[in-house]
Amino acid sequence: MTTLAVDIRQISPQTDARSSAGTIHDLAHSPHSTAADFAAAPLPGSMKAIVLLRKDETKLRSIPIEQRDLRKSLHHADVTVPEPDGGEVLVAVMAASLNFNGVWSALHEPMSPFHYLSQFARLEPGNAKHNLDYQIIGSDAAGIVVRVGAGVTNCRPGDRVVIHPGVVSGVSVTAYHDAVQDESCRAWGFETNFGALAEFCLVRANQIMPKPAHLTWEEAASLPLVNETVYRMLISQNGARMRLGESVLIWGATGGLGSLAIQYALRAGAWPIAVVSSPDKAALVRRLGCEAVIDRSAEGYVFIKADGQPNLRDLVRFRKKVQSLNGGRDPEIVFEHTGRETFAASVFVAAHGGRVVTCGSTTGYSHQYDNRYLWMHVKSIIGSHGATYHEAWKANDLVCKGLIHPVLSETYPLERAARGIERMRQNRHVGKIGVLCLADRAGLGVEDSAMRQRVGEDHLSLFQGGIPT
């Protein structure tokens, strides 16, 4: 990953990035800091960030996707600190975390990131400032409010917050029903600019949520996107509406989504069946409390043949394995986010009248399956994408109450974030990967140590250290 300067303002020695960041860092860890202190703290003109550059795009997209080098597209750069307009909030990012959309961004797939920015710029006049020759990526952050724009009343400087990554128009009629169904809804830091992988990020006021006080900065940052996504997929009326006693087949059960899906299933009185890809990962999900585990590598399942057709022999074999762990029954819910490699199996194995709920396709977007196993058994496929602000808030509240826990496995400094994104691309990670931005070391940010003690360090460090690689 290269380091360069992009769009730097001229700044005075009194307000350079190092001195201002240090001031905010000191205020963040002083028990006597006030809202006035944060509002008065000087801000730098420039900041460190992980960015994509428009000038890289033509050359990058001329290379086959499997040969694209993330080190050539991700840059650790100095960029201008954005200023909040009306309804916006500037947050000092203490820590961020990585999601698979960071891999897509770095690969410039499935669409040009700068096409997303130009689309976003056309939605509302105030969005034009996002359409730059660089994009700050990242969709998960925890930090401290340092500036608020006109009309913002739900937070003030000094508030410790996490960010809901859904960007919604305040005048959309559809958004008042279900923001995810609004065509103008965008993923912050993926389809917009000024994302999480920076020393400061810019968000709308309706993205602000309270930071869970018992978590560190990096633990808190690891949760919002995956937590609210799982909540919508499994709990919300917009998802599978998981019920007491139902069984849930969970693909990629040691990933950021899958590991939280296990927690939700167990909390809701459901029976999770975890699918993993190694004995080490099987051991990790058992530590989460999941008793029914399938190691795909040990079983040697191949669900799609070389010609792209579903492999009925292995589909039947897999279904029998699932049934053997589920009292002879097929699962009522399949939690699907892996895509092409598994989708035929998801449709095939779901119970009669069951639900396949899907939010992504990390192994490929083109799914081929036998539709007879869907329509003749009255199964349903539920597409899910992110969450509404209400769903995000409810999911975050479960964390604040100590009912849902982070599954953070490793943490990198901002300048090494590309290494974490590459690990996600190669599926060499488990749980979530954290990134330290203004926090100078891991373990900072805990405000409620008594709550942390009640939750227990063992619940908060289940995936720490990851697995041998």
Task: Please tell me about this protein's structure.
With 469 residues, this protein is α/β, with parallel strands linked by helices. It folds into two domains: 2-223 and 408-460, Alpha-Beta Complex (Quinone Oxidoreductase, Chain A, domain 1), CATH 3.90.180; 240-383, NAD(P)-binding Rossmann-like Domain (Rossmann fold). 32% of the residues lie in helices and 20% in strands. The protein contains 19 helices and 19 strands. Strands 4, 6, 7, 10, 11, 18 and 19 form a seven-stranded mixed β-sheet that branches. A six-stranded parallel β-sheet has the order 14-13-12-15-16-17. Strand 15 (333-336), helix 14 and strand 16 form a beta-alpha-beta unit. Helix 5 (100-107) crosses helix 17.
What distinguishing features does this structure have?
469 residues; alpha/beta; Quinone Oxidoreductase, Chain A, domain 1; Rossmann fold; 2 domains; 6-stranded parallel β-sheet; 19 helices; 19 strands; 32% helix
The CATH homology group name of the largest domain: Medium-chain alcohol dehydrogenases, catalytic domain
* Number of separate domains: 2
Tally the beta strands. 19
Catalogue the unreliable spans.
5-18
Give the biggest beta sheet. Answer: 7 strands, mixed
Q: Could you estimate the helical fraction of the residues in percent? A: 25-40%
Architecture per CATH nomenclature, i.e. the level-2 architecture of the largest domain: Alpha-Beta Complex
Which shape, going by the Cα principal axes?
A: globular
Strand content: 15-25%
